[in-house]
Design brief:
single chain, 289 residues, alpha+beta, four-stranded mixed sheet, two-stranded antiparallel sheet, 6 strands
Length: 289
């Protein structure tokens, strides 16, 4: 494979991610207009979504902690992970994010936060117990790259918008069912279909954003640590047991460093139904550095 430098990869993925994210408000305006058959309806939908977004922007840290079952990790509990992260932050000239742990022996990690004071890296207990220093450093560098590249803000916003579409679909279905049971069956079915299709498209947009950002964070980690093989080794271990059972809201798994490909009846769905590229593809890209 031809070598792709990190700056080129960042530019490509940033452009693609911006184009994907623009799709959310456009889709929201279309859904609002189609369901209410008025420009005012589209405006109301957009306004309510912005209010929802503002609330999530303010309270995202607590929401993520609740959704994943994470807690603050004190330095005295595990000075090793603090020292590794601190050294990476010093090398990049940035402030150190908070550290959290999920008490689960599976292997996974994620970065979160939409403001500098919210930035947090969360690791599972399995990461701390089963990865050596170089592998753990590679994972921390990957998550730190998400923060540096502002991926966490983009991904959390995409999760919020998907939640908005899910809520809209449920409200519309219930309201139309109870107010139009005796007549207007075609209106009910059409409205529900619009809401369901919009939700499905929102999910595909979110998945696309997540996949693009993983490649960029891998490249950032390779540049930071100068040991791409260490992250590749960590990814191999993570792929063997990455499911965190404590997660209450499955949408947040798009933030994780790895999630298995979705499957139905034991058959893997195409990659564009997944939050992450395959481990094999990511390792092949890491081998370029």
């Amino acid at each position: 494979m031809a070598y792709v430098g990190i700056q080129t990869q960042i530019k490509r993925n940033t452009l693609h991610s911006i184009l994907l994210l623009i799709g959310f408000p456009v889709l929201l305006i279309f859904v609002g207009g189609a369901l209410t058959q008025s420009g005012m309806g589209a405006l109301i939908f957009l306004l309510l979504s912005l209010i929802w977004l503002a609330i999530a922007y303010k309270f995202n840290t607590g929401m993520m902690r609740w959704a994943t079952g994470a807690r603050k990790l004190e330095r005295k509990e595990n000075p090793r992970v603090y020292n590794l992260l601190e050294n990476l932050c010093i090398s990049q000239g940035i402030s150190m994010p908070a550290l959290q742990v999920i008490e689960d022996h599976s292997l996974n990690a994620f970065a979160s936060g939409v403001r500098p004071e919210d930035y947090t890296i969360t690791v599972s207990r399995g990461m701390l117990d089963l990865l050596n220093d170089e592998e753990l450093e590679g994972v921390l560098a990957h998550e730190l790259a998400h923060i540096i590249n502002k991926d966490v803000r983009l991904l959390i916003i995409s999760i919020i918008f998907v939640g908005i579409f899910s809520f809209i679909a449920q409200v519309i279905a219930r309201r139309l069912y109870f107010t139009n049971r005796k007549n207007g069956i075609y209106l009910i079915l059409t409205s529900i279909l619009i809401a369901v299709v919009a939700y499905a498209l929102a999910q595909l947009i979110r998945l696309g954003i997540s996949r693009k950002r993983e490649y960029m964070a891998d490249a950032g980690a390779a540049e930071m640590t100068k040991r791409p093989w260490a992250l590749a080794s960590a990814l191999k271990k993570i792929s063997g047991d990455s499911e965190i059972e404590a997660v209450k809201q499955k949408d947040v798994t798009s933030l994780f460093i790895h999630m298995p490909r979705m499957s139905i009846g034991g058959v893997d769905l195409p990659e564009w139904f997944s939050t992450h590229p395959s481990i094999e593809k990511r390792i092949r890209v890491l081998e370029q550095f």
